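Project outcomes to date are best conveyed with an example. Our students and postdoctoral researchers have been running inverse folding experiments weekly, and each run begins with a structure described purely in tokens. The record below, which covers 290 residues, was selected by the lab manager from last quarter's runs and is presented without edits.
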């Protein structure tokens, strides 16, 4: 069993405990922010408050847990420090007579999270991840997939073709961001409390672009259609907002970016880029005997 397989086996066995610690960390941050904002009960929250607290409360615990399971074992102390800070800040807010239900939730979640981190099961997870990270990695066996750059001529190929492909990827992400902001300004300028939805749309577009790029890198050439879909959606959103009287430079930029991205994705360089990774995938499967 190689290094990655050992980590995957450890995560499969302890997935419920890791999920519980993540949920408690998210709940600790979200409830603390609710206490700071003076929210009296969950039923009194508006949709914008829910979106803002979800965004602020999910990002940090998620990143810490992802880095933890990827081998950065020292980050468990960062997670414990985060829970301790949430608990101390919540205790310090007691003198301001905070609302009851949310305040007790803000007290309970970090305490429960610290108990989970100090439990015997989580200690076994931590010890196992440390053991795996310190163990010497075995050499590649014959027939196993190898690094893409080790294929003959792959480094020179990437130097020649990677520039336009990366440009298409980043232009697509920039186009969805600009188009979303333009639609918000054109049709929802009087509802600034809905800015959370703008962030969600941009994040969804970036996620679709990331999935498409990942599919291409893994040899699935049809992943380019994810990027095409985002670029076409951005172009349609930009065109739909032309009549709103936005600055001409901003309008022209939001229309030009997806067009340039589509041209790059339809270019010979990008097509060869996708085909080459598909060939590499077939070679890897052939070497693995599949």
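After processing, the design step wrote out the following sequence:
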């Amino acid at each position: 069993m190689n290094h990655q397989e050992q980590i995957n086996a450890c995560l499969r066995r302890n997935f419920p405990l890791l999920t519980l610690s993540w949920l408690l960390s998210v709940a600790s941050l979200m409830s603390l922010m609710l206490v700071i904002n003076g929210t009296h009960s969950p039923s009194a929250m508006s949709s914008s408050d829910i979106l803002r607290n979800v965004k602020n409360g999910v990002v940090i615990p998620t990143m810490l847990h992802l880095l933890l399971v990827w081998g950065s074992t020292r980050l468990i102390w960062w997670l414990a420090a985060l829970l301790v800070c949430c608990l101390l800040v919540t205790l310090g807010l007691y003198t301001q007579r905070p609302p009851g239900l949310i305040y007790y939730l803000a007290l309970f979640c970090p305490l429960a999270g610290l108990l989970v981190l100090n439990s015997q099961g989580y200690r076994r997870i931590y010890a196992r991840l440390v053991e795996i990270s310190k163990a010497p990695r075995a050499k590649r066996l014959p027939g196993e997939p190898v690094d893409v750059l080790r294929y003959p001529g792959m480094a020179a190929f990437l130097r020649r073709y990677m520039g336009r492909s990366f440009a298409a990827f980043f232009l697509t992400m920039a186009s969805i961001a600009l188009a979303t902001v333009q639609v918000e300004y054109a049709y929802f300028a009087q509802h600034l409390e809905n800015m959370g939805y703008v962030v969600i749309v941009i994040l969804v577009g970036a996620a679709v672009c990331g999935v498409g790029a990942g599919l291409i890198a893994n040899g699935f050439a049809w992943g380019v259609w994810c990027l095409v879909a985002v670029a076409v959606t951005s172009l349609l959103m930009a065109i739909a907002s032309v009549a709103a009287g936005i600055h001409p430079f901003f309008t022209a930029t939001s229309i030009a970016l997806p067009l340039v991205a589509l041209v790059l994705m339809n270019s010979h360089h990008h097509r060869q880029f996708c085909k080459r990774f598909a060939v590499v995938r077939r070679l890897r499967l052939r070497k693995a005997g599949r």
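DSSP finds eleven helices and no strands in the chain. The longest helix spans residues 154-187. The training component of this project remains on track.
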